[in-house]
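S.,

Sequence below, as promised.
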Amino acid sequence: MKILYFGTAQIAADILKELTKLDTEVVGVVSQPDRIGNRNKIQPTPVKQVALELGLKLFQPNKSREIVEEIQALKPDLILTCAYGEIIGEKILNIPKYKCVNIHASLLPKYRGAAPIQFAILNNEKETGITLMYMDKSMDTGDIIVQEKVSIEPNETFSSLYNKLTVLGKKMIKENIHILTSDNVKHYPQDNDSATYTKKIEKVDEKINWSESAIKIDCLVRALFEKPIAYTTYGDTLVKIHEVEVVGNNKSDATPGTIIDISKHGILVNTGSGGILIKKIQLAGKNPTPIASLLNGKHIFEIDKSFTF
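The prediction came back faster than expected:
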């Protein structure tokens, strides 16, 4: 069974590794072009790295439509995609005998789009999952083949949930690849009236708004951990927030963002509803530091001073 694989992110790279262990032939891999990463160095995509390690034929077009003829020449029976980063055009969707199947990290029709894992945490969901779905010309709107759920724990971060979903995605491909390459695949349409959409996380979305509730701020911090990391400012200093804890109603009438208390347990800050304890921070040019360690030396934080938003 000849499979062409589209993917870019780490979850897609891990699933690609699993796919190559199965009774299939990966005839090619398509990934996004390399981008500038840390320290302004060109960074290959995780999927590219795996493709090169495994000696797989690799394409990195600016737009997938640029390689239609190359894909036709490969004669794939099935196209699989996961976290590729671009809507694939109908010319490509119509090539394989067994159509194109997307591995999407949400329980569709909830959280269509670019950031389903982050938004599940941002919205304080209790569960999410992986959906295997047929692709069509729109974004994440095709018929559902199979779904499986995972729980979202109260302290779940983007990183921990990403890892959970990666494990689930690998399992589902292993268990369902024979179904995807059959002539009678059961599938059902999505309920478009129940659909919700996500967007790419921008820099403006990363800044903490202290007038929000403590619960919502906690969700933001967890949704952006370990990358890109929620942040705030204290005077002229940028402060990245790595870990917080909701402490409920602190009965303070202080302006949201005001530091109420500083102790070895953390920096207690008033919010629009309740208090939040900052337990781990990162200052510019420094490593992430637990507040207990920060208090062992000189620091800039003072009670009754405020973080800005």
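The mean pLDDT is 95.

Coffee later?
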